[in-house]
Amino acid sequence: MKQPDIAKHLYISQATVSRLLKKAVAKNIVQISINEPENTFLELEEQIKNYFGLSEVVIAACEQDQEEQIFLHIGQAAAQFFSATMQQDEVIGISSWSESLLSMVNHLNHNFKISAKKIIQIQGGIGSLTVKKHAAILSSKLAKITHAETVLLPAQGIFGSTKAKTILMDDPYVKATLSQFNEITMALVGIGPISLAKLLADSGNILTKAEMNTITQKKAVGDICLHFYNNKGKPLETAIDQRIIGITLDQLKKIPRVIGVAGGKNKTDAILGALSGRLINILITDQYTAMRILQSIAPKLQIKK
Question: Is 222 in contact with 271 (CB distance < 8 Å)?
């Protein structure tokens, strides 16, 4: 990897990279050599990155194409990437309701040498009280690790009616959090598959049967922060949008780095949709999901399966 590439990946200047490398070599901290890395997927990462025009793709090695294994390994990979690329005084947005992000936070080293400025919860907790607490704990734990201020979103992610949402939108604490979304420099988001039974259960039955049927009829493949989209990544307008409090997809697209952390058979279509719509610009996933993505785009890349 050349110095300009290192600078781009770490979001620092090339001059800083050069200075740090010279210093590290002089102190015998770094030795310049070429080794074939184990358990890496450089070619696969590059193919997916170039096809979708992403800033970065990180593929985690995984023993099995199994949910628990995937959560574990992409969590580790996301923690390493986050630790290597977070900048001093970064303003970080994090969505709630994501096992992948929880795994990432749980794998972070607590000895951070630099500090983020704020950790902002960009999606309210939904469903049961336990799930709502999980949303706040995820943001608070990341803030503690990165020595940052916690900015919580004290609201449900989705309301039972537009009237209930309108009332809470006037809450000064909610307004204060929403007004800080434009400061975010890095967003960490999960990518959800379309499983209507799971959506109903996780939402605490706030979603109606008619709304779930609409989601199906509009051919939704996934959601990011409760905003549904099709296989091209085009946002789908539904009545649910009028009952959500949290970041919008338009706001998300304005953030310099949007890191999607997701993997698994049931999420492949959702990830492909998010990539096609450029809803994220950095992907952290597992080797099996990456291969499924490659197989999906292979005809266009003229790659033999």
Answer: yes
CA 55 to chain centre: 14
Q: Which residue has the tokens 């338009």?
A: 250
Look up residue 271 and give its DSSP letter.
H
Q: Which of 177, 193, 185 is nearest to 97 (CA)?
A: 193
CATH fold for domain 38-301: Rossmann fold (3.40.50)
CA geometry: angle at 81 spanning 75 and 82, to 5°? 85
* Residue 37: pLDDT over 90: no
The whole-angstrom separation of Cα 301 and Cα 304 is 9
In this structure, are residues 250 and 202 in contact, taking their beta carbons and an 8 Å threshold?
no
End-to-end CA separation in angstroms for the chain = 28
pLDDT tens readout for residues 251-261: 999 999 999 99
Query: Can you say whether the dihedral through the CA atoms of 124, 125, 127, 128 is positive or negative?
Result: negative
Q: Kindly report the pTM of this predicted structure.
A: 0.84
- Whose structure tokens read 């469903």? 127
